[in-house]
Amino acid sequence: MTHIDAGAELDPVHPVPPPVGRPKGLSSAEVAERVARGEVNDVPVRSSRSLGEIVRGNVFTRFNAIIGVLWVIMLFVAPIQDSLFGFVIVANTAIGIIQEWRAKKTLDSLALIGEARPTVRRDGRAAEISTSEIVLGDLVELGPGDKIPVDGEAVETDSLEIDESLLTGEADPVVKKPGDRMMSGSFVVAGGGSFTATKVGREAYAAQLAEEASRFTLVHSELRSGISTILKYVTWLMVPTSIGLVISQLVVKDDDFKESIAYTVGGIVPMIPEGLVLLTSVAFAIGVIRLGRQQCLVQELPAIEGLARVDTVCLDKTGTLTEGGMDVTELRTLDGGDESYVRKVLGALGESDPRPNASLQAIIDTYPDSEEWRCTQSLPFSSARKYSGASFSEGDGTTSAWLLGAPDVLLPDDDPSLAEIEELNQQGLRVLLLARVAGDLDAADVADGARATALVVLEQRLRPDAADTLRYFEEQDVAAKVISGDNAVSVSAVAGKLGLPGAANTVDARRLPAEREEMGQALDDNSVFGRVTPQQKRDMVGALQSRGHTVAMTGDGVNDVLALKDADIGVSMGSGSEATRAVAQIVLLNNSFATLPSVVAEGRRVIGNITRVATLFLVKTVYSVILALLVVCSQVEYLFLPRHLTLLSTLTIGVPAFFLALAPNKERAQPHFVRRVMRYAIPGGVIAGGATFATYLLARHHYEGAGAREAETSAATLALFLIAMWVLAIIARPYTWWRVGLIGAMGLGFLLVLTVPWLQDFFQLKLVGTTMPWAAVAIAAVASLAIEVIYRWVDRRVPA
């Protein structure tokens, strides 16, 4: 067949020359000249922060500044043992930088794999290039699903329809003619053509949007915003408490100045939960690295957390539950049609579309083209229309026009053929109707009066991993909604084969109520929806969100873009259209739906573990504030030197938190992070602070003479260590062999400090006598029992 429409020569893999009379694009010399002038699309599309930003983000923090000042002071006024906290911060910051740099390299390499490569015509040949290599004046070719990378002016159009909704908010596709403006950031929904680049780089309309869409971010996360809220309150508590402590130790007590400074700093430093932000960043970064090994590109870091919070997953059938390819299993002629003639029509229709979808590709593979047929007009497939078409001049001089698409769209509701089609759909088969029409294909009513000629029966290839993935979501109480543009009965059959709960209750989306509340109720009550338009997909996501659901949307076609953009989490297949990959937060580069449980599990690991770790850090912050306030009110010397609290923090928080933050965790993600953490941290910190101060006061009455202060501090340190260890033991539940080993190792570390002479001298810790140490153990036991009782009461009475 000879095809005279635009776009026939496009081949993104093997460059071929265009037919005579077609624009040839720029020459190699013209391209080199424009590159030399800097007229190139050099907008940096970053998947992560630069190394400089990573270093600045980890070094220049509010708490690092506070600790840095205190560290410098301590280096001048106290032994090196009291400055250990500064070295810990340096090590923590270095760990944060290294892990985020590793995550950056992982993201950059994955982004390169998933990078879109537009087709341009140069020297008369079409070839794929990187988006950053487009120069001013390039002739860029377009097909369905392509995102327009730069601004330009249409040159050739073949029923070209552009969706500009992401830029203008206008939902209806815009039909483009030669000379019309093309806006970067929009995408092709139907047809094909080419345009000349008129604005490249940062001058393009949506260059900033494109850059922002694929940037590695640490924002819009309940976890991080919750931690920021906690840190804000901690700062407010720190300022007045620190001022009171300074006045108490320097003015009220007439002690040695340098020693007073050392004890004052010892009271301020533990109020700062300095490792909490670090461990959150490290947990996220390691999550990115782990998912990267499974070919999962996380374009926005909090998407790991977001997918773990999702309670509803909307799945597009084609490309998600089924593989992209299809096979023609049967051709049924209607009304006594000639099968050999129908085969010729199908072969010609296949060749009329330069960029066929999966259904048309199956037809192309089955029915060869007839050389004597000539295409005079084509109508590319559109998700909104549900059909494509073409007009032909046949070999004998006659003309004909045909449509190929959804039978229930092309036929009236009372057509007798629909009963036969229904039976096929119930078997999970996909059925296309070939219908002959009269009139111009551009007419809005072209489908009216279509004469059914044949049914093309297609078998869809189910993804082998889809059933297991759906089962995983069911076990995790995540509702799966199959939302497809295909026939509702066919979609239901596919969902049923995969074991989706509620697959038998299928809804034809054309009968869904338009009101958001009623639509949301229908979505809650049913699981499978067919004949859904792209705009309806978007509306359905919004209806679910309006009912309090956190929604993830998966898809790979242009009809999914609007819904992906509006969903809480958008997931695209790597083989999907450029437009879907651009708006999705997560891209499955291996096209495996089975990767999604890994993303959910990784998110749950991060959220659950950071909640545990945050409780540890904030218990320390609360008991430090309580101790400081009690010292100010009672006008006594502060209990600890910085070295004591560095030891306690390392053994009861720092080392255990690092392992707990990276451990496996399958707990379902829960909302209200701040409330969940503080309901444990406040009572635990208050009891620990009160019990430690009581031990200290008791020791002050018990010990007298030289070495009394060291003995008092040692007793208080022992009590606080035991209480903090019990909090760690609670947080570490449920126990595994390595968690028990971790707690035991921390206890052994403290025991070594108390028994090895040079460690006793280094940390200035030495238990004197037996009465007070055993009293400290008894007080710690009572406090630990109180924390256990309070925590269990909180679990029952104070919901998160």
What profile does the largest beta sheet have? 8 strands, mixed
- Count of helix runs: 27
Based on secondary structure, the structural category is: alpha/beta
Average of the residue pLDDT scores: 82
Question: Which parts are unreliable, with pLDDT below 50 for 5 consecutive residues or more?
Answer: 1-20, 210-219
Helix content: 40-55%
Shape: elongated
Plain-language structure description:
This protein is of the alpha/beta class and 800 residues long. It is built from 27 helices and 22 strands. The strands form three sheets. An eight-stranded mixed β-sheet has the order 9-22-21-20-10-17-19-18, sandwiched between helices. A seven-stranded mixed β-sheet has the order 1-12-13-14-15-16-11. Strands 2, 3, 4, 5, 6, 7 and 8 form a seven-stranded antiparallel β-sheet that branches. It is elongated and about 120 Å long. The N and C termini lie far apart (68 Å). The model is unreliable at 1-20 and 210-219 (pLDDT under 50).
Brief rundown of the structure:
The protein is an alpha/beta fold and 800 residues long. The chain is 50% helix and 16% strand. Strands 9-22-21-20-10-17-19-18 form an eight-stranded mixed sheet, sandwiched between helices.
List the helices and strands and how they pair.
Layout: E1 2-3, H1 28-36, H2 51-59, H3 62-77, H4 84-113, E2 119-122, E3 125-128, E4 139-142, E5 151-163, H5 165-168, E6 174-175, E7 181-182, E8 187-199, H6 207-213, H7 222-252, H8 257-268, H9 274-292, E9 296-298, H10 303-309, E10 312-315, E11 322-333, H11 339-352, H12 358-366, E12 374-382, E13 387-393, E14 399-405, H13 407-410, H14 417-426, E15 430-437, E16 451-462, H15 466-475, E17 479-483, H16 488-497, E18 506-508, H17 516-525, E19 528-530, H18 534-546, E20 551-555, H19 561-566, E21 569-573, H20 578-583, E22 586-588, H21 596-634, H22 642-661, H23 673-702, H24 708-731, H25 737-755, H26 757-763, H27 771-797
Parallel strand pairs: 1-12, 10-17, 10-20, 17-19, 18-19, 20-21, 21-22
Antiparallel strand pairs: 2-3, 2-4, 4-8, 5-6, 5-7, 5-8, 9-22, 11-16, 12-13, 13-14, 14-15, 15-16
Helix pairs in contact: 2-4, 4-9, 7-8, 7-21, 8-22, 9-21, 9-22, 10-21, 11-12, 14-16, 17-18, 21-22, 21-23, 21-24, 22-24, 22-25, 23-24, 23-27, 24-25, 24-27, 25-26
